[in-house]
């Protein structure tokens, strides 16, 4: 579960840059930020708004990642358990 949270925290700046770059094209010409690439977007965001802006709104993303990872681990354990149980039952049938 910490892997999902860590991934969300590490990926947050790139996601912010991606969203800003995509929404930039919808702004009127005089309001566009004119990001050239992701690195340019990250540098401009940090210079104009501060480093913490890169992690603004990260809480829902981290929460979603934790829940998703927990569900995946639970499902994996559940499926492995029942697969092993199935194999044991089939093995007992074949021994008779």
Give me a quick take on this structure.
With 96 residues, this protein is an all-alpha fold.
Topology overview:
Blueprint: H1 2-24, H2 38-49, H3 58-95
Structural notes for this entry:
With 96 residues, the chain is mostly helical. Helix content is 76%, strand content 0%. The protein has helices at residues 2-24, 38-49, 58-95. Helix 1 (2-24) packs across helix 2 (38-49) and helix 1 packs across helix 3 (58-95). The longest helix is centred in the last third of the chain and has 38 residues, at 58-95.
Residue share in β-strands: under 5%
- Note the main sheet: none
Q: Stretches where pLDDT falls below 50 for ≥5 residues?
A: none
Average of pLDDT:
90
Supply Rg.
Answer: 23 Å
How many alpha or pi helices?
3
Structural domains: how many: 1
Pattern of helices and strands:
HHH
Distance between the termini: 43 Å
* Oligomeric status: single chain
User: Helix share of residues?
Assistant: over 70%
Gross morphology is rod-shaped
């Amino acid at each position: 579960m910490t892997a999902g949270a860590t991934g969300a925290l590490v990926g947050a700046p790139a996601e912010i840059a991606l969203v800003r770059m995509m929404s930039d094209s919808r702004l009127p010409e005089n309001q566009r930020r004119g990001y050239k690439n992701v690195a340019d977007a990250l540098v401009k965001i940090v210079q104009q708004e501060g480093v913490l802006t890169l992690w603004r709104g990260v809480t829902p993303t981290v929460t979603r990642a934790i829940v998703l990872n927990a569900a995946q681990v639970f499902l994996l354990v559940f499926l492995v358990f029942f697969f092993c149980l199935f194999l044991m039952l089939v093995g007992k049938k074949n021994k008779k």
